[in-house]
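CORE FACILITY INTAKE
Project code: CF-77B
Contact: R.S. (postdoc)
Sample description: multi-component assembly, two entities in total
Requested service: structural model of the whole complex
Turnaround: standard
Below are the sequence entries exactly as provided by the requester. Do not edit them.
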Amino acid sequence: GQQLNQSPQSMFIQEGEDVSMNCTSSSIFNTWLWYKQDPGEGPVLLIALYKAGELTSNGRLTAQFGITRKDSFLNISASIPSDVGIYFCAGQLYRSGTASKLTFGTGTRLQVTL
Amino acid sequence: DGGITQSPKYLFRKEGQNVTLSCEQNLNHDAMYWYRQDPGQGLRLIYYSQIVNDFQKGDIAEGYSVSREKKESFPLTVTSAQKNPTAFYLCASSPRSGRRTSGSYEQYFGPGTRLTVT
């Protein structure tokens, strides 16, 4: 099955820095989701995007649904140590009345140094 | 509290044995999913179910089986036919509605079960 391309694969940043990561697909989606996973735990939903061009914030996190519907971006401002983890994007092509599958990105591993 | 539970957290089995992983949700979600995650990898879909007594194969269904006899439960059996069963297994659920409202199709995950087969 398809996996989305996510970049960067990993990044080391200093506390207080801003972080950007993106996710690209060869096919279009009508929903983009961003998850964070801590080691040994299940992913936690951070942000959901439903419309091309949409920009949505959740605290220090901001995500955008790309205009082409084939990409999405996540920004974290003023990073803190608890931002450490793996961030996954997921695309979905939903149809009304049908719970549709998610296609996941390969993940971006974020490490924050003091 | 509403949520998804998976048990046990860690599971050890000998090669050649079947093993069943539990997943229960009290979110009243119609759809449930099983994913497999290998070290440094994303999530790959094994099976999913949109409604009781119905399920579909995902991308890597070979060597796995599921049942959906109750809305809140979706157990996964890893059979001896699965060639490389050691992995982290994640269960998820989502609502399923006739028209999309905010949050209708988002999937929520359980804490996972780490299976080690030796």
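Facility notes:
- Chain A has a mean pLDDT of 91.
- The interface with chain B takes residues 1, 3-4, 31, 33, 35, 40-45, 48, 50, 88, 90, 92, 94, 96-102, 104-107 of chain A (CB under 8 Å).
Invoice: internal transfer
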